[in-house]
Amino acid sequence: MAVNESVDILNSAYLAVEYIDSFLPDNPLQQPFKNAWNYMLDNYTKFQIATWGSLIVHELSYFLLCLPGFIFQFIPYMRKYKIQQDKPETWEKQWKCLKTLLFNHFCIQLPLICGTYYFTEYFSIPYDWERMPRWYVLLAQCFGCAVIEDAWHYFLHRLLHHKRIYKYIHKVHHEFITPFGMQAEYAHPLETLILGAGFFIGIIVFCNHMILLWAWVICRLIETIDVHSGYDIPLSPLHLVPFYAGARFHDFHHMNFIGNYASTFTWWDRIFGTDYQYISYQKKEKNQELLTEKKSK
C-alpha cells in the first residue's frame, strides 16, 4: 500500500513539473545543442562517442571546474573566503598533485571509460536525440545518483579510515591537510577504484540515455571539486541544495582526519554521530567570533 502511495506521489510530482515546464519559454540553446548532438551521431561511431566523448567530457569538466579555485590564490580579495587561511597552496604541492592526477586519469580511469560502450550496448542504452530525457528528469536522475553515491562513499570512506588499512590506501589522499580543487581525485589507485565504484551504481539504476552518464559526470565533478576547493563562497548556488555538506564540512575532514565521511550530504554523518567533532568546532568558532566582536566594541 505504501509503495503504491509513493508511486502516486512521484507520478503527481512528475505531472506537476511537466505542466509547469509547458509554460516556460523555449530554451534558445536547445536547437544548437540538438544540431551538435545529431552531428556527433552522424559522424562518429557509438564506440567513439562512448569512449573518447566520455574522456573529453571528464577532462574538460575537471580542469575547467578546477580553474576558478586555481585563480583565487592570486586574488587578494578572495583570501577572506579561504577556509584555512594560514596554509596557502604551494607550487610544489600543486605540481605533485597534477602528476598523480594525470596518472590516475589515463592509467586507471581511461581503461574503465573504455568499457562504457559495452555497458551501453549490454543494457541497450540509447544515444538518439528523440529518446533523450527532459531536463527535469535528468536533474532528478542525477540527484538519485548523488544519493546512492553518497551512501556508498560514506561507508567505504569510513572503512578506508580504519587504522589497519588507512596507511596503505587512503593516507595518499590525506597528504594534503589543506585541500584544493585539483586534489579532488588525488588518491591511491585502489581508492580510485573502491570509492569510484559508487559513481557507477546510480548509472546502473537510472541510466536510460547516454546523456545521463555525461550529466552525472559533470554533477559529480562540480560537487567533489567544490568540497575540495578550500574556499567557502557565500553566494555559491550549491548552498541552496538541501543537506549539502559543502567545502567547510569536507575541509574539516582534511584538518581533523576523523568524521565527516560523506561526500555530498550531511545525513549519514548526522545519523551515525560522526559529525560531533565538527559541530563542536563550529560552536567554538562562533563563540570566538562573538568574543572578538565584543572586544572590538
Automatic annotation (TrEMBL):
Main location group: membrane
Sorted UniProt keywords: Membrane, Transmembrane, Transmembrane helix
Keyword Ribosomal protein: no
The UniProt record lists the keyword Aminoacyl-tRNA synthetase: no
All copies of domain Fatty acid hydroxylase, residue ranges: 144-274
Pfam families named in the record: FA_hydroxylase
Compartments in which it is found: Membrane
Cellular compartments per GO CC: membrane
Ranges annotated as spanning the membrane: 60-79, 100-120, 135-156, 192-217
Domain of life: Eukaryota
GO molecular function per UniProt: iron ion binding; oxidoreductase activity
GO biological process, one term: lipid biosynthetic process
InterPro entries: Fatty_acid_hydroxylase, Sterol_Desaturase_Related
Official protein name in the record: Methylsterol monooxygenase 1
Origin organism lineage: Eukaryota, Metazoa, Chordata, Craniata, Vertebrata
Gene expressing this chain: MSMO1
